[in-house]
Design brief:
It contains 17 helices and four strands. The protein is mainly alpha-helical. α2 packs antiparallel against α5 and α7 crosses α11.
């Protein structure tokens, strides 16, 4: 153990205690307001619906507590517990070329971690989601999804990991710059391909059939200067009762998608307003800004990895005896979340700012009242808590709290 070991353990412990404290605050806030619907929602959400949302949130907090502890133990097992060292020794016995031994090591870590997390995923789906009436997925569907995700992971991850490891070994000291180029090309390719090649593997997408609604939404797209390959309805009800809407892809491959569960619950005014909000992200260039931010962060991360792979204390401090490119990349991916925990509020604040801007845009292109009504229905139907703890929300919520968001939109109505 060296100084870096103690820094790692301190941040792992302090970050974990912080997360448990935030979960405790969130549970107290939700439980403390369970017996009364907040005034802004009193006429639209019943006490039973409010209490269901509170109980649903509290159930998920239980899962988060277990997940937090499990992830910390698993991380210690991989690092100081010798898990990575042992797994690396098993791959060395294959006598494969070093590149493929390293690729095998990384894919194994990812696969084993996913397998160990499977019981928690089952708990969420067939425990909590089932108990609160949201799960519509069968055991057979769940297993099929898991196998499909595993196949995609292998298909995508193996060439990506092999390419980066090859660059680490062959491209000289500035390998990380070329690796960043590969990563960005990969990210853009996946973003482009997702709507038409990946998403249809899991769900069925059909063109929006409601002619009046389609004409209305197409006029909105024209006003906003948004061009897409069409508007589609996704069979989200096949797995869950939750509803949502989104657009994905970029360039000419953009696609607008509505969950069928969302269309069933909202009026045309509300659907138009929800879509206007999503288009607000496009018009305000939030997607582009997000991609540029992630590009800068990934570049800085790879540059940091380029330096750390040369430092013996990095490997020794995390309980690893074998110093290799694959081990450096494995350790970096495993421990980087420990060192970024305290930056979470910054990204959450930026995301909430973007949500306010998208709401403001929607209020100018559609009905602000329609957006309020649509949001309230979505809060109700998705059992979203109306009374989150402010500090927990500041850390973990990418969207503003319900009451804050509704108040903001109401102010726009008064201004108009």
């Amino acid at each position: 153990m060296n100084l870096f070991t103690w820094i790692f353990l301190f941040l792992l412990t302090s970050g974990g205690l912080l997360e448990y404290w935030l979960l405790w605050r969130q549970a107290n806030a939700v439980r403390g307001h369970r017996d009364r619907v907040p005034a802004p929602f009193a006429r639209r959400i019943s006490l039973d619906q409010h209490q269901k949302a509170a109980d649903y949130t509290l159930a998920h907090i239980q899962v988060e507590r277990v997940t937090l502890f499990f992830n910390a133990v698993l991380l210690l097992c991989w690092t100081l517990g010798g898990g990575l060292d042992w797994l690396s020794s098993q791959w060395q016995r294959t006598e494969w070329p070093a590149l493929w031994q390293g690729t095998g090591l990384l894919i194994s870590v990812l696969g084993i971690s996913t397998l160990l997390e499977l019981p928690i995923s089952i708990w969420r789906t067939f425990g909590i989601e089932e108990r609160f009436g949201f799960n519509r997925s069968s055991i057979r569907q769940f297993i099929t999804d898991q196998l499909l995700q595993l196949g995609l992971m292998l298909l995508i991850s193996i060439p990506l990991v092999a390419s980066i490891l090859w660059l680490m070994g062959q491209a000289g000291k500035l390998w990380w710059l070329e690796a960043w180029g590969v990563w960005m090309l990969f990210t853009l390719s996946i973003t482009w391909a997702y709507p038409t090649l990946i998403a249809p593997l899991f769900n069925k997408f059909t063109p929006l059939e409601d002619r009046q609604l389609r004409v209305r939404l197409e006029k909105l797209l024209q006003r906003c200067g948004f061009h897409s390959k069409g508007m589609y309805v996704m069979d989200g009800s096949r797995r869950s009762a939750h509803g949502n809407a989104y657009f994905s892809g970029f360039g000419r491959n953009k696609r607008i998608v509505f969950f069928d569960t969302l269309l069933e619950g909202l009026t045309p005014d509300e659907i138009e307003a929800v879509l206007a909000h999503e288009l607000g992200h496009f018009r305000k260039r939030h997607i582009l800004k997000g991609m540029l931010t992630m590009a800068a962060i990934s570049l800085a991360g790879l540059a940091l990895l380029g330096w750390l792979r040369e430092q013996s204390w990095f490997f020794e401090g995390l309980g690893v005896s074998t110093q290799s490119d694959a081990m450096a990349l494995s350790l970096f991916l495993l421990v980087i979340p420990v060192f970024t925990t305290f930056f979470t509020p910054l990204f959450s604040a930026l995301s909430r700012r973007h949500e306010f801007e998208a709401d403001d845009f929607a209020a100018t292109q559609a009905s602000a009242e329609g957006l309020i009504n649509g949001l309230v229905k979505m809060y109700r139907d998705n059992a979203s808590t109306l009374t989150p703890d402010p500090l927990y929300s500041a850390f973990h919520h990418s969207h503003p709290p319900a009451a804050v968001r509704i108040r903001h939109l109401s102010s726009r109505i008064r201004e108009q």
